[in-house]
Amino acid sequence: MSQIHVTTKINGDETEFLCEPEDTLLDVLRDRLGLTGTKEGCGTGDCGACSVAVDGRLVCSCLMLGAEAEGREVATIEGMAKGDQLHPLQRKFIEMAALQCGICTPGILVAAQSLLERNPDPSEEEVRYWLAGNLCRCTGYDKIIRAVMETAADMRRAS
Amino acid sequence: MRYEAPLSVEDAVAALAGQSGAHVLAGGTDLLVKLRSEMIEPEVIVDIKRIDGMKDIRAEEGGWRIGAAVSGAEMSEHEALVADWPGVVEAAGLIGSTQVQGRATLAGNLCNASPAADSVPAMVAAGAVARIVGPNGTRDLAVIDVPQGPGKTALEPGEFIASILLPARGQRSGDAYLRFIPRTEMDIAVVGCGISLSLDEEDRVTAARVSLGAVGPKVMLVEKAAEAIKRRVLDEAALDDLAAACSKAATPIDDKRGTVDFRRHVAGVLARRAAVIAVNRAKGDTA
Amino acid sequence: MALDDTKKTRDFKVVGTRPDRPDGIDKVTGRARFGADMVLPGMLTGRILRSPHAHARIKRIDTSKAEALSGVKAVVTRADFGEVPADVADVMDNCMAGDKALYDGHAVAAVAASSPAVARKALKLIEVEYEVLPHVTDVDEAIKPDAPVLHEGRQQETVPGGMSANVIARSEFGHGDIEVGLKQADRVVERSYRTAATHQGYIEPHACLATMGPDGKADLWVCTQGHYMVRNTCAAILGMEQGQLRVTASEIGGGFGGKTVVFLEPVALMLARKSGRPVKMVMSRSEVLRATGPTSSTSIDVKIGMTKEGRITAGFAELRYQGGAYPGSPVDMGAMSGFAPYDLENVKTVGWDVVTNRPKAAAYRAPGAPMAAFAIESAIDEAARGFGLDPLEVRLMNGADEGTKASYGPTYPAIGLKATLEAAKSHPHWSAPLGENQGRGVACGFWFNFGGDTCVSLNITPDGTVTVSEGNPDIGGSRASMTMMAAEELGIPYDQVRTIIADTGSLGQNEVTDGSRVTFAVGLATIKAARAAKTEMCRRAAMVWGIDEEAVEWEDGAARPAGPNAGKFPPMTLKEIAAIASNTGGPIAGHHEVNAEGAGVSFATHMVDVELDPDTGSTKILRYTVFQDAGKAVHPSYVEGQFQGGAVQGIGWALNEEYIYGKDGILQNAGFLDYRIPVASDLPMIDTVILEIPNPGHPYGVRGVGETSIVPPLAAIANAVSAAAGVRMTQLPMSPPRVLAALQAQADG
Predict the structure, then answer these.
(1) Mean pLDDT throughout A47-71?
(2) Which of A76, A77, A141 is the closest to C680 by Cβ?
(3) Contact across the interface for B180 and C617, Cβ inside 8 Å
């Protein structure tokens, strides 16, 4: 078994890694690069805890091979805050108690950020459907949906 | 296991040739699940996304040729494609989550050969044709003929689907796909129904293709359902006949997702609802 | 000292506000470390081989080929553990099968290897010879005299002779005379109900990382609801002294009761012992569903007698819960809780604990109660509607109050049931109009709430900030709540206190995070620890001032002379006292250790509107409101979060979630694709109304809030669906095929 050399960009940083052909991007992030903010809840694309953006497109990192990251740009939860400046979604999630245990939170934040980049003024229904692939078992989603909607409103006001 | 990402169809065919354990990777949303669960243990995975044209949506003969690696999200962002084949695009858009939409492809959904694949009934109704490449060259095969049973396709060893052609959308015609799932998202279809039809100036159906998913070992084209509505205005009586034909054609099983009786009944319900949407689209309603 | 324990109303400064949670930034940035996020140098990957059979005798296990594989450092089977103490024998067998595999997914062997790939390969090299036995997974089938038997000799004396050995125990609760009560009724509703097994569905799979030196000292990092429980159980299984095993709780990605027992942990420790290397084990989602602890599936018969005015004259329920492969289903909790919201003269419940070839049930949020409430609240609803009575009025008429003798024995102190019903009655939701195919349902729910063993240590740092060490994993924001209660008690700002979850080496015994006990019990201990620290700080101030310590009181974060006779001294703040602590006797701390009692029961009323699609049987939740007594809401946002989360888990249970076993006894939906928990687009906002009827057993009046919220939804939704459908739904989940079949049967007359 020979490892594959991959050159990619993660959260804006040029990154090289070696991985096994069967390693998923999630395996690489967590086990080879120490980026454990991306979580594994199912490994089958059914829970969204492993959400990352690849070339700006929201994907489940458990459904992508690490080798496929060659030449791509990957954005994970670790890149969401700029230094000590939290992203407005991150701030709002804390403020509005939109998390309990926190295991789904990174994936939901990455997914919500992807939504707001495309649609700065989503309806409640649009937020709910966009996030349907991000399972949360603690909150019943209420405060999450509210936090995303309020962040969108704040960001619209600020822009 | 090896991973290869060839840059040409020829190289991909070569990589696949003679490898009994070779698997094609496009969106990977089915392949990686099988890999993880050890359902498959490939010798080599051939990633076709870097091959020229695989990520393209191109106009062709009045229709659209969709590369094998085009994701559902990319299709739904293509306005002209959505305008012509909203049912197919919506069907593809029902597969999995937003995240899965970022990767999953029509060709992959077809090759997975699940009887419940959402995009397949829509493609069948549309009369879509798969372009297959392989060691013996290129051939075209109607989408309806690709699946041969659960998990089985008509592809020969070394072959893969390079693109899907959606034919020209005629005047006063429209398509729709509906499925039933227990939740509002994230489920596999319990029943799926695709309809594509054309109307004359009096709103009579001049041509129709009706398909059903998840009610048999593979997606089926229900010709009797199409016959039931041809030359008719889709009034209540016609819709009843359509629904009855679909319920009758369904040959479902009891499983964890639904019962025989439920699927038969809902096949008719969905056909009726999808037909109404398709008719409205044919009349020019863009909703 | 003026520490008034009896003062019922006080002006809270911190409690009742909504500060940011202390773990918030870590959790929104990906920094928080959960079970699978820890690594150690030289770490191996541990994996488990699981039974593909529902019931099989294990005739032989040959691990030699796996052991010979390069990279394999240890292989473990049940034989490695030898005899274990009787009180952990079932836990042991559930973690690693003994003579028999008792369910699909039961662990039979484990490996530790240098990589996941090697571990996977090694599992395939383990040869297990099974003798497949007949199996039973259904509770009513398992009770039949000719059912396949899981265990011989486990039946308790409470079970009458002649029943299947799968029937482990019978329990009975109640008072009065059912037959007399039924005679007084104008109508008797008699129905049978069934509920499917559901899983807690926490998003974080079980994970742990174990190390053990040749001297037997071990460390374990684990996601659990109770690391003290993990320590005690693992120590017993591995024959260790508890003090030699230090367990640290990771952040926990949901538990809901499912992480109150061990699965991987003893195996990881044994692999670490055998390999001499750290071993990390992480379950896959399918392992979580196949082999951890879902809740019981149940079969329940109810008989309710009611007068035409709505008075319940008799309430009877017989409850059969299968608890999986080992004794101990939560049937007693169901039997005790089902009628608990009502003041009844004649009430009786009988519970049957049954074993089947399924994974052993673990606790799931108010374990046992939701199913009983589903059956009983459905029957009450049917009786009330049968007379055309308002279901809220009927519940108010029969509702329990202070002084009511509960159906399970005790007499209630001040409780909040009627407050929730009154709030529901006056809420706009109750009078909102309904459209076609829509229905509204209400139901009540009860949970006991626990106290239990609790230790808290509160330390004053030299700069006058405060650290609180407690021993209960924070599953819903409890670090925030403890921090708030400490700040409240000490009279200092919230951000001057930091609460941590201490490892098992740092505190005495702590009961697991269960029974909605933490905000109550750990809060109580935190307040008492803060009071101990205050007493000490008053003593230090008295020493400085040269007056009696009784002449010093604590107010607004400072020691003050108590009254004019104590002398005139300016207040000495916590910071000032901390700064001179070294000169006044040394560091200042407070601690409290208690087996907390007086948890204070909790009640809720839920109201839900649904709309049915009559063509497909599909149910949409349109509107949902939770009314629940919190005693005192320490952090109202997190209280609301508990209400909302429990309601939505209940929605899943009511509509779509179920364990589906094939005829072969194999679980057919071991993944989030077909084990269908609610997704965001399934739901409306979940409205909440917090009632505050102070718990007399807590200094601030706090009651646990975590579990009650999952008790009413099953029945509330069943009542709403039944109203919309015009036909009574008696089986969960109310999946579309089931609802459609009921609608069609109704139409066919």
Answers:
(1) 98
(2) A141
(3) no
Which residues form the domain of C85? 36-131+205-252+259-291
Buried-state track A60-80, b at ≥16 Cβ within 10 A, e below 16:
bbbbbbbbbbbebebbbbbbb
Which chain C residues have a beta carbon less than 8 Å from that of B261?
A: 737, 741
- Displacement of CA B102 from its chain's centroid (Å): 17
Overall pTM surpassing 0.95 (yes/no)? yes
| Residue C160 lies inside a defined structural domain of this protein | no
3-state secondary structure of C299: strand
How many Å lie between the alpha carbon of C337 and the closest alpha carbon of chain A? 24
Angstrom distance (rounded) from CA A16 to CA C706 = 46
Q: B153 and B216 share a domain? A: no
Q: Tell me the per-residue pLDDT of C585-631, one tens digit each, with 9 for 90 and over.
A: 999 999 999 999 999 999 999 999 999 999 999 999 999 999 999 99
d(CA C366, CA C420): 19
Query: CB distance C656–B182 less than 8 Å?
Result: yes
| Contact assignment for A65 to B36 by CB distance below 8 Å | no
Q: Same structural domain for residues B128 and B248?
A: no
Specify the number of domains making up chain B. 2
Does C116 score more than 90 pLDDT? yes
Q: What's the pLDDT at C749?
A: 76
Most distant pair of Cα atoms in chain B: their distance: 60
Asked if residue A9 and residue A75 are part of one domain, the reply reads yes
Residues of B within 8 A of A45 (CB-CB) are: 29, 32-33, 96-97, 99-100
Which structural domain range is residue A142 located in? 88-158
- State how far the Cα of C635 lies from the Cα of C603, in Å rounded to an integer: 19
- Residue A138: closest CA among A110, A99, A111: A99
Question: Into how many domains does chain A fold?
Answer: 2
Q: For B97, which residue in chain A has the nearest alpha carbon?
A: A133
- C226, C90: one domain: yes
Q: Record the tokens describing residue C692, joined without a space.
A: 């505050």
> Domain end: B166, B200, B229, which one?
B166
Q: How far does B172 lie from chain A, in Å, by closest CA?
A: 30
**Segments forming the whole domain that contains residue B80:** 2-166
Q: What is the mean pLDDT of residues C361-379?
A: 98
Identity of the residue in A21, A43, A63 whose CB atom sits nearest the CB atom of B2: A21
CA angle C287, C288, C292 (to 5 degrees): 105
Show which of residues 50-69 on chain A sit within 8 Å of chain C, judged by CB atoms: none
The total domain count for chain C is 3
Q: Where are the beta strands (DSSP E) in C284-396?
A: 297-306, 312-322, 347-354
Report the gap between the CA of C526 and the closest CA in chain A (Å). Answer: 21
> pLDDT for C285-303, tens place per residue?
999 999 999 999 999 999 9
Taking residues C484-494, report their average pLDDT: 98
Mutation site for C-interface testing, chosen from A1, A39, A142 by largest number of C Cβ within 10 Å = A142
In chain C, the N- to C-terminal Cα span, in Å, equals: 75
Find the residue in B nearest to C656 (Cα).
B182
Q: Chain A contact for B238, CB < 8 A?
A: no
Q: Are residues A67 and A99 in the same domain?
A: no
Which residues in chain C have Cβ-Cβ distances shorter than 8 Å to A88?
none
Can you say how many angstroms the Cα of residue C71 is from the centroid of all Cα atoms in its chain?
Answer: 40
Do the beta carbons of residue C749 and residue C622 sit within 8 Å?
no
C254/A20 touch (CB, cutoff 8 Å), yes or no: no
B266–C615 CB contact, under 8 Å: yes
Do B143 and B227 belong together in one domain?
no
Residue where a domain terminates, one of A53, A79, A105 = A79
Does residue C571 sit in the same domain as residue C485?
yes
CB–CB of A97 and C18 under 8 A?
A: yes
Confidence of residue C567 (pLDDT cuts 50, 70, 90): confident
Range A89-101 average pLDDT: 98
Same domain, yes or no: C579 and C724: no
